[in-house]
């Protein structure tokens, strides 16, 4: 790593899916209530992408918007990294489809990163390594998910939680003291079974049986995930703060993956960062997995909530269980 190269985020963008599915709509579909969903999760509504729109369409729109803010064009990109577990298709990479849609050149290496809800932080960490080693100059890092296409709308345990969307950032090689200070990635493979879309891969290739047994839908042991989420997210926040020699009071904005308001409130208390510093939109988007951080970051940036030299802490956790953090001097 070169000490004099920093990785700066110079543009953010998002795609907000057209459709809105409210808790009241869900009351008509499964045995649930607006009160249960609001109290247990903090979600009131979630966005649902229109028929015919694919994950790469949402992602391409988010990248165009981020490029525009960055003052760059698709041809300036030498890499596209897309965090997703709900790509357009198993092959090719969704990032390649995004490259095609935005019209980036053949010199732009494009690949996906699979780390579920932590996919954006994993992608950002990979981008940071490429930039700091001088192997890339301008990278689009994306979190894009269309979870509603993988949801069993008869399963109240999952169908009330997730939504569609995409967010993106453009990172560039810079020689200022601003940029990504550090990233920290972890995986606890004892919990691989807690969050899965089991069908459609090499273990359970698509068949009539995988369809009838609903193996192409998301399955979650919510309680198991909940038990570790607060500790792991708080640990990831603490390691980012500690390794940069700053204190919790120095953190200006927290861009956290948003799965459940109760998890975030508990993390806020545990690490002692007021919840008011969290960039939150869970209530209107639901859990958008890897898209959750870049969407909320874009809204915070465009809403004037992030200023130059602010310290922005990112934390995320998802299937794997994979989680991580990043600390950025804006
Ligand atoms: N409406 C009404 N009741 C529901 C419900 C719904 N949508 N979903 C579950 N319930 C019921 C359960 O069946 C259970 O009933 P029982 O006690 O009769 O068995 C009861 O509510 C409590 O279920 P439980 O799973 O313990 O609820 P919870 O308080 O843990 O909340 C989650 C469920 C999913 C919201 C919560 O566990 C969670 O957020 N988990 C982590 C999710 C996450 O972080 N995912 C990974 C990142 S993507």
Helical fraction: 25-40%
Compute the average pLDDT.
97
Q: CATH H level of the largest domain: which superfamily?
A: Thiolase/Chalcone synthase
Question: What is the helix/strand order?
Answer: EEHHEHEHEHEHEEEHEHEHHHEE
Query: Segments where pLDDT lies below 50 for 5+ residues?
Result: none
Largest sheet strand order: 1-7-6-4-5
Our estimate of the beta-strand percent is 15-25%
CATH fold description of the largest domain: Peroxisomal Thiolase, Chain A, domain 1
Question: How many individual β-strands?
Answer: 13
**What class do helices, strands and sheet pairing give?**
alpha/beta
Distance between the termini: 20 Å
Q: Can you tell me the number of structural domains?
A: 2
Most strands sheet? 5 strands, mixed
CATH class of the largest domain: Alpha Beta
What is the count of helical runs? 11
Morphology:
globular
Describe, in plain words, how this protein is organized in 3D:
The protein is an alpha/beta fold and 330 residues long. The chain folds into 2 domains: 6-176, Peroxisomal Thiolase, Chain A, domain 1 (3-Layer(aba) Sandwich), CATH 3.40.47; 181-329, Peroxisomal Thiolase, Chain A, domain 1. The chain is built from 11 helices and 13 strands. A 5-stranded mixed sheet has the order 1-7-6-4-5, sandwiched between helices. The longest helix has 22 residues, at 222-243. The protein is globular and about 55 Å long. The mean pLDDT is 97. The structure holds coenzyme A (COA).
């Amino acid at each position: 790593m070169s000490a004099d190269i920093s990785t700066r985020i110079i543009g953010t963008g998002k795609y907000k899916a057209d459709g809105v599915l409210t808790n009241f709509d869900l009351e008509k579909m499964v045995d649930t209530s607006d009160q249960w969903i609001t109290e247990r999760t903090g979600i009131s509504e979630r966005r649902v992408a229109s028929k015919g729109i694919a994950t790469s369409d949402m992602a391409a729109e988010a990248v165009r918007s981020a490029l525009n803010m960055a003052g760059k064009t698709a041809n300036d990109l030498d890499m596209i990294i897309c965090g997703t577990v709900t790509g357009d298709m198993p092959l090719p990479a969704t990032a390649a489809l995004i490259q095609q849609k935005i019209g980036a050149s053949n010199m732009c290496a494009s690949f996906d990163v699979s780390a579920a809800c932590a996919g954006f932080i994993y992608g950002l960490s990979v981008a940071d390594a490429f930039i700091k080693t001088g192997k890339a100059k301008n990278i689009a890092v994306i979190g894009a998910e269309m979870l509603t296409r993988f949801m069993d709308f008869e399963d109240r345990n999952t169908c009330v939680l997730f939504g569609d969307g995409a967010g993106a950032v453009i990172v560039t090689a810079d020689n200022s003291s601003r940029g990504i200070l550090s990233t920290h990635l972890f995986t606890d493979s004892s919990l691989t079974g807690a969050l899965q879309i089991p069908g459609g891969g090499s273990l359970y290739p698509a068949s009539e049986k995988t369809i009838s047994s609903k193996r192409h839908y998301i399955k979650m042991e919510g309680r198991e995930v909940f038990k570790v989420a607060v500790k792991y997210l708080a640990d990831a926040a603490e390691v980012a703060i500690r390794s940069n020699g700053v204190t919790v009071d120095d953190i200006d904005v927290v861009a956290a993956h948003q799965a459940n308001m109760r998890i975030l409130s508990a993390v806020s208390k545990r690490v002692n960062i007021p919840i008011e510093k969290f960039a939150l939109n869970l209530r209107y988007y639901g859990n958008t997995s890897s898209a959750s951080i870049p969407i909320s970051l874009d809204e915070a940036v465009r809403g004037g909530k992030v200023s130059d030299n602010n310290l922005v802490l990112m934390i995320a956790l998802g299937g794997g269980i994979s989680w991580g953090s990043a600390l950025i001097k804006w």
